[in-house]
Design a protein that fits this description.
The strands form two sheets. The chain has a seven-stranded mixed sheet with strand order 1-2-3-4-5-9-6, sandwiched between helices. The radius of gyration is 14 Å and the shape is globular. The chain has a single domain, classed as Gcn5-related N-acetyltransferase (GNAT) (Aminopeptidase). The model has no long low-confidence stretch (mean pLDDT 95). The protein has five helices and nine strands; from the N terminus they run βααβββαβαβαβββ. A hairpin with a 4-residue loop joins strand 3 and strand 4. It is of the alpha+beta class and 148 residues long.
Length: 148
């Protein structure tokens, strides 16, 4: 049975999973303390995500990760559905930023996100090493938005 819980303390215990989606720990350290961390369990831990307030109307999904052997089984989608419902009375819009990889962009689009804007050279300017996803080097951050 799937259970999702908000984690209040010891958020760094989930670092191994968070690093799957954001592979530089000092970048995670910038948002984890002020973000809400949610963990999805199905018998054991499968996925986590972090949501950060941007302003009174907008929040951002900063990190979502599922252990590789459980990917493609709907856990990420279940987390997005949960947090969308969880925040719908607090925020009007949810943002998510990601690299320009077709599989990830289509996943977010299938979860109700649509293209919003781009931050040029985000990955090359903010990470101390090249970041690759699906053999594609990430350069720009692509932001998508979803009405809650």
């Amino acid at each position: 049975m799937v259970k999702i819980q908000k984690i209040i303390k010891d958020k760094k215990q989930f670092l191994d999973l968070l690093l799957l989606a954001d592979e530089q720990e000092d970048m995670i350290d910038k948002y984890l303390p002020r973000g809400d961390l949610f963990a999805l369990y199905d018998d054991n831990l499968k996925s986590v995500c972090v949501v950060v307030p941007i302003n009174g109307k907008t929040c951002e999904l900063k990190n979502i990760a599922t252990y590789e052997k459980y990917q493609g089984k709907g856990y990420g989608r279940a987390l997005i559905n949960f947090i969308s419902d969880f925040y719908k009375n607090d925020y009007k819009t949810m943002l998510v930023g990601t690299g320009e990889t077709p599989t990830i962009l289509s996943f977010y689009q299938s979860c109700g996100f649509e293209n919003s804007y781009r931050v040029k050279n985000f990955f090359t300017d903010n990470y101390d090493h090249p970041i690759f996803e699906d053999d594609i080097q990430l350069v720009d951050m692509i932001y998508l938005k979803k009405d809650l």
